[in-house]
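Budget justification note: compute hours in this period were largely spent on complex prediction jobs such as the one shown. Inputs:
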Amino acid sequence: MPAKGYIIVNELYCKACELCVTDCPHEVLALDMERLTSRGYHPAHMVKPEACTACSICAVVCPDAAITVHRYEKQKAEG
Amino acid sequence: MVVTDIPTKIVYERPEALDPRVTHYCPGCTHGVAHRLVAEALDEMGEVENTIGVASVGCSVFAYNYFNIDFVEAAHGRAPAMATGIKRVLPDRLVFTYQGDGDLASIGMGEIVGAASRGEQITVIFINNATYGMTGGQMAPTSLPGQVTSSSPTGRDVTRQGHPIQTAELLSTLTGSSYIVRRSLHNFRETRRAKKAIRTAFEVQKQGLGFSLVELLSNCPTNWGMSAVESRDWIEERMLAFYPLGDYKVSSAVADIKI
Amino acid sequence: MAKELIKGNTAVAEAALRAGLEAYFGYPITPQSELLEHLSGRMPELGRPFVQAESELGAINMVYGAACTGKRVMTSSSSPGVSLMMEGLSYIAGTEVPMVLVDVVRGGPGLGNIAPAQGDYNQIVHGGGHGDYRIIVLAPSSVQEAVDLTALAFDLADKYRAITCIMLDGSIGQMMEPAEIPPMQPLKTDIPDWAVRGARDGEKRLLTSINLDPPAQEAMNLRLMTRWQAIERNEVRYKGYYLDDADFVVVGFGTAGRISLSAVRAAREKGLKVGLLRPITVAPFPNTVLDELTEKVEGFLVVEMNAGQMLEDVRLMVRGRKPVEFFGRMGGVVPFPDEVLTEIERLVKGPRTTDGHPRDRWLARLAETIG
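Corresponding output:
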């Protein structure tokens, strides 16, 4: 199924708590173990963007309001 | 890869009522969620420039730094009294307190019962995480029977240390209270319900329908000694049984509110 | 406006209301309750908030909240209740918001009794709450003076963003005297820039007493103390009686000052050149006049309804240059003018000394009298 949108993680806020990673129903997210934020956290990022449904679950459970959810206006996009 | 050159609609973003600064809360702490839900409700209601918050003492002592609204900082437990003073002289503003369980249900029990019984037109956001977070995880009035804390090292023994206080149930017995509910922040579904309750509570105040309080079951990964994910499971597995979610008091006028 | 016979507590309540009191929060306690009772009727009549709080803790923190909006607010209590308010008073001082407190002092310590006393001088004048702060303390000696000082109390609180306490000993609160209460003043319309209002001009305001950074806290302490120095320079008030040719001076405030005046008059009739210094502001203390008097006179008698609390402030200014004696009654016992006159005569007759502590000499005499 093609992606219905994507998320942007604001790395200023992300504290790598993994709640979004755990709660994403499609396993879209993981912590990026290759990178550190300016505050020393491995930020959440999309590892399976094609599965993103823009459902906003990740953003709703994020304790740091770090996630912006974009939904494609038309359903033609491919991940 | 993420395609970003297709037109999108933003369906979720950081609310404007939140200050841009990074909070001091530990990773995974649901204080941040509660803050965001309050900010979202104020944004949606267009009340950002009509609201005065009252911060309390505890981990949320700096809550005033995280909202783009006027704030005052209360002494430990006294936020409902301070909010009463503000609301009585500025009755057309939204006034809310943001209090933890040590603040509200221990040292501040007199003030919260007084405010609720008077039917003060204020909203209380009550964070119940079963511990004293800021001072290092001591036993709170809400700590569960058997719960190990830094001041109940062998677990809370109810024969010596008493029983936890069920705040929503207690306050719902007061005639003066209008909207008393308990929600939880341990998963997406309950967080959405919590948001709706917070919005309703502010509507109760805006419409002058009386005292409103939303108790939010919350976590404290650091002082509970577990990961953020485990801490949410602990809410579900341990706290929900003792603190059932639900609407404990919804006055008839409040029941008509549609959001 | 004609004078009317009115009880001190009621008179202060009405005077506060007419001085533009916009919200009152209080809790019943004897001998203060008439003040709360009067406002419980009058405030709602005028559409102004009145709340009987769940406790003095509640009352002072309601005042704290309302004071953060820049309105004229007040609470009133009596000694044990004011003890409970000390936390809030410290926060209010630390947040630099104005308020008026009326303390109708009764006998203590502990539950004590409900008779008039001055045992809370140290608590009110020298702190009580935690941290470095001072409050302005006005000590009337009649119902009319209490009325007159009420409007001043609000003006001073607003001017210095400070707490002003009207310290009535229980007798001033309870006695009925003829007094003229000034006409109703309009409510204050200007909102101070610092007051919270709901970010209506797009500017967020925060009022707090937290300063986690010690240098920032110290800067705040400095601001408070510099402001207090200005209060000391500008706001000292006292009344002198027969001071011009006095060889001896009695010092007393409130009811003790009033009783002392009767004694001083009786002494004058006996040809003794005695005067009275009655501080109206016990904080700031009238140090300058006391200093000047010390150069002129031969000795002082401090009279209080406590065990010698203001006495220490007097001694600090006299600094052993002249003899200071003390006479007090405690626990709600009100001294008679004759007792004070006897003390005046003892001082005049001598022998006088600057050695030892006047409290020790007084306690020895008191033990003989009441022991």
